[in-house]
């Protein structure tokens, strides 16, 4: 059974005002002091962010428990220096992002300018094990049409600088400012993938291969493919759902490759439209159906995804749990809907942030 690991980025906020706080260095120092040898937290581009990485897991219940444990541990360490954490993919309240002091981040600020300074967005990246680069690239080529559905399920960023954007996942739109971000053409083979990487690096536009911000890529440091299209999810069970569906997509794609089935030939232009529609609509209205790339109700597209990965999920024993969680998510709404509902009830973006901070740790 393929292992799965999750990287989540959390927003550090003031527990009274809800405003983002640039205190990641202090939180990391606090966590390092308490947990030497079991450190799971990392700094990110901006000082208002805190990232954690789970261990590779095969059992989704174990993964869920670890996500909740890491979120609560992040909240505890943040609380000791006067902060809260919130699983929000953008800050609902206005913020002046503070770029970290690391040499890499300073290079990015110098090279990319305002795109770096404004890039306070928080995502959820899922790593799924593959047996080889060849299998990994076969997976990358075959999961492309389905990634927009993961964006719609996870969408959790309706507000930007104190205003409603009319998007469900505005994070994904801001992310597109990076020069290497977004969907990719078909690579065809591991050699084709690595040649594309060499060609991109030869342009001098990117500092290193870590800046290849493809929607899905071969991981640099692990034998995995990394799916990078999801907002950080407000509820931990949504993060588990995205991770489980990601493993189902990877296994389904690998089986198609071994059976000699060619990947869908959708162009990057159309994939960009599918990603935009998912960011705009989330789970309300229509999405583009991954098979024919034509509009369809969100519920129908989610059902198509479940059918597509159904055999793989059944083989790992995850199918019933995924169906139940999807049904609950469609009923409750994704993070974007929850945030808007909170604003409608309270009339206050501060209350949106504080309410989401409570939901983050369950």
TrEMBL record:
It is an enzyme of class 6 (ligase). Its EC number is 6.3.2.2. It holds the Pfam family GCS2. InterPro entries: GCL_type2/YbdK_subfam, GCS2, Gln_synth/guanido_kin_cat_dom, YbdK. It comes from the Bacteria. It catalyses: L-cysteine + L-glutamate + ATP = gamma-L-glutamyl-L-cysteine + ADP + phosphate + H(+). GO terms for molecular function: ligase activity. Keywords: ATP-binding, Ligase, Nucleotide-binding. Belongs to the glutamate--cysteine ligase type 2 family. YbdK subfamily. ATP-dependent carboxylate-amine ligase which exhibits weak glutamate--cysteine ligase activity. This is Putative glutamate--cysteine ligase 2. The lineage of its organism: Bacteria, Bacillati, Actinomycetota, Actinomycetes, Kitasatosporales.
